[in-house]
């Protein structure tokens, strides 16, 4: 009897020991959280089981899971096993809630977790959930727009640098732009940055890596509060998890994140009215001004060139040069405009010029009166004026102007006096030497035989050209190309006619560019995205510089709907369009 009791006791002890070795429990990432936070619940067991049943999660919404992970390792000959079912929960309201019991079958036995209580409070200022990959990515990735000046003057250059800060705790890949700022109230110029370069820096006092993913120079065209639209990027973020591979290395979870730089607001100051010159044309910066003739002594009917040049730093492309006024007796032609301007992080720098061709008609002395140029100096915040000296042109040889005296008082008109030299009508012959026409017979003459045989010879030609015409009419694709090419030239000529009328000019310019693309790339207007145009031009082996210039022209047409533009800028865009179309034609 005692022996049976001993065996029964041992059997029960072994059974209890085996049962005690099984662990199945619920673990929470936190027991108190805000309604705008997330909760992670892990159901862990140390032996594999079947028929896992989750609790109801009353008061919460399941936003992730169940995620299953298994850990199996041998340490000093002893096996360690763990299996986890993970859930991510979002509370639906404030209050005290209970996570119910989960069940699982292990070795034929049913095991249950203990209920756990959770308190949900009002929203916290900064939600934290270190186990959620999406949250971890958000907390370790920041796109920032750094503006050089928040209170600039009208037409003063400011820069926007977009920096993407990345914590060393995560890794990024597949960075791409999904929304570019329009800068509708600014003249803008993107600065090419080339390959992205990783640099070290700080974000809110913590060490971060960052890359500069965009640089833009802006010239505000309106006063008051202006918004700089955000840059938006799509990024694949690799977030480390608690799991490891068979070699012990960390496993990563990839999250696709959309990050935006946020809207920045600047307050643009108007230029002061006090001291503003009457001839001020909008130049803002630091400039030098001069007028230089290539010669001051010549003969009548010879030509000279007078160049008006403005150089320095400022909004060189956004104002018009002063006009040159010349006395009577000097024939003046339309100026040739030239720009040598480069844009960097400090703004525009270089020079712009108008070159006038002047041709004297008579000998004499012609003084070209001084010309003034005024601008707003940002360093002193005052208006400044530069006046060129008087230029005297000496014409040594040529016809006498008679009663015309060239002086500086007659510079307001360009009327020329017609001087009679006695030979104006020498092209009229008074003695025509007319002779009577001999009577000739048309019959059997050369003209007779030509008139007789020409219709017969023309029949094969009519048949040949008729066949060619039918082939041309049946070529639907070719006709579409020819029509688009013809429309491109038509609208480009329309754009030239509308120089000075910003709206009509850029509408005609955009139509010309679109029809040109139809002709050369065989695409429709609805398919004309910038990326597709770049890809097709590259496939046609058009060089990158020409492709970039073409895309820039399309962008100029878009921006012109919102940004004011000068006649000079329109002329520059027209010249660029002619040059780029010609360049693409040659390369195609």
Automatic annotation (TrEMBL):
Pfam families hit by this protein: BatD
First and last residue of the signal peptide: 1-20
Entry keywords, A to Z: Membrane, Signal, Transmembrane, Transmembrane helix
Transmembrane segments: 446-465
The keyword Acyltransferase is assigned to this record: no
Protein name: Oxygen tolerance
Organism: Aquimarina amphilecti
